Amino acid sequence: MQTYIEDFSMQYYEEVLSLWNETLIHDKISTERFLTQIIFDENFGASLFLVALNASHTVIGFAYGIKRKQPYLTRGLEPKRAWINMIAVAGEKQRRGIGSALLKALELRLKQLGTEEITLCAYSPNYFTPGIDVRYESGRQFFEKHGYQQGEAAVSMDKNLSGHVYPLEKSLEELKLEGIRIIPWKEKYSLKLIDFAESEFGGGWHRNINHAVQSGSAKDLIFIAVDKNDEVIGFCMRKIDGNDCRFGPIGVSSALRTLGIGGKLLEVMLDDLQKRNILYTFFLWTSGKTIDFYKKHGFKIFRDYYLYRKEIV
């Protein structure tokens, strides 16, 4: 079967979208999301979104990669790193070498751009998943066959807030005895909060805060914990992707993580969601011991993943 590999162009987007939703059944996507999260991503490059075409020039596969063109906050350009976010081949065309051809072509282009390490899926800020969903067993086997190494497990979690009850007032009084208050975001804490997020967590955390402030919604989306010296020692927020129900991130000063501040920040946010009649919340990615933290507060796992990476030489 004759197959051609070409750069993405908008003439193919409807076919790509259709193929995406037919094959990546746990990660379906709308036209709007495809445009905003992929095409208008500042690092998008058509030469790293490859499409496979048959003799009739019908799309039968695609592979979507990313290499930073714009620095990402404290991470900068990450010049030796790249991502492969999604790859798919039409069901009836699978196991004919099309996926392998797409992957090899994309890896070669990424290598020519200076890439030494490829991460699957977990591209910030516009990732779809943190890794490969365990239900894509054939996908995991495909990447492992091509030298990708399985890393840690990760999960997505959610919580139904209908009927959620927590002794919040008593809990907050306990914090006050330690000189700690949890309050909605206020302008006077702007610089302290951004400095705290960047120094404690780096990455895109203060980017999320900036967006909330710039949009005028920070007071509705962010809670902060301040100590007796009026210094920010923790925060949590939601709606980082425009979805009212999406929780996170949440973080507490590394020196104070045994005082239960994180749990109380979480419960304040859950209480606020209830008051707004938002009775469901979720987040896309956590791992390790943090899973137990959320389970303690009634969250349940709804997706499991494995992280993957590959060094290319």
List keywords for this structure.
27% strand, nine-stranded mixed β-sheet, elongated, four-stranded antiparallel β-sheet, alpha+beta, 313 residues, 10 helices, 13 strands
Walk me through the topology:
Elements: E1 4-7, H1 13-23, H2 31-39, E2 49-53, E3 59-66, E4 81-89, H3 98-112, E5 117-120, E6 132-133, H4 137-145, E7 149-160, H5 168-176, E8 181-184, H6 190-200, H7 205-214, H8 218-221, E9 222-226, E10 232-238, E11 247-252, H9 261-275, E12 280-286, H10 290-296, E13 300-311
Parallel strand pairs: 4-5
Antiparallel strand pairs: 1-2, 2-3, 3-4, 5-13, 6-13, 7-12, 7-13, 8-9, 9-10, 10-11
Characterize the overall form.
elongated
Derived structural class = alpha+beta
* H/E element sequence: EHHEEEHEEHEHEHHHEEEHEHE
* Biggest sheet character: 9 strands, mixed
Helix % is 25-40%
Task: Provide mean pLDDT, rounded.
Answer: 94
Oligomeric state of the chains? single chain
> What is the terminal separation in angstroms?
31 Å
Rg of Cα set: 22 Å
Low-confidence stretches: none
Strand content: 25-35%
Helix count equals 10
Counting DSSP E segments of at least 2 residues, the number of strands comes to 13
